[in-house]
Amino acid sequence: MTPEHQPDPRPRRFRSAARVVVVSPGEREPEVLLMQDSDPGVPDVHWWVTPGGGIDPGEGPTEAALREVAEETGHAADPRDLLGPVGHRVARHGYSDRVLEQEEWFFVLAAPRFRVSTEGHTEREQRTMLGSQWWPLSALARTDEWVWPAELLELVAVADRPAEWPLELGLVDAESTVPVRPDAAPPAQDAATG
Q: What are the Nudix hydrolase domain coordinates in residue numbering (predicted)?
């Protein structure tokens, strides 16, 4: 059997997750807060993602979205400022140490620009998260950086059109540092966050 036909040896996890597009009015134009993430097993590679993570047992997507924003950014959001879910997808992420398949619910949070605190980061986030940045929408539209989800600007735009919620983004296999092999074993159920 050739290496590309070997079963993928990485452990697989499945979870549901809430992700939050934090939008500030900005000084000149709206800005989106993104976190710079990395894969320690793939040096010198990074990408930008919205705050968010796994939905804990007994928790709904909205509660998870508010909790994740607080844990990952230090911002205690007013629930009245959280819109959505505005989008939905299933994403398979291949990392050097695991494959994560997650059903993701996207929310939009209107918030004044704030300073990010990483005091609530998990041990894994402390290893992988490299920083954060407020991105003007025009900069997001023209960047060559990896920004996940690729439909980020669509999610910002649909926030003003509740009749279209949730925007269905389908199954996404492209957001990986290490490709996910199609012949890998199906994911196990796992509610753990990280």
A: 13-160
CATH of the domain at 60: 3.90.79.10
Q: Alpha-carbon distance 101 to 74, whole Å?
A: 26
Residue 57: which domain range?
12-172
DSSP string, 15-31: EEEEEEEEEE--SSS-E
Identify whether the C-beta of residue 54 lies closer than 8 Å to the C-beta of residue 194. yes
How many structural domains does the chain have?
Answer: 1
pTM of the entire structure? 0.89
- 178 occurs within a structural domain: no
- C-alpha 71/C-alpha 62 separation (Å) is 14
Amino acid residing at 166: P
180 occurs within a structural domain: no
Tally the C-alpha atoms within 13 A of residue 15's C-alpha that lie toward its C-beta: 23
Residues of the chain short of pLDDT 50, as ranges, are 1, 189-194
- Asked if residue 188 is part of any domain, the answer here is no
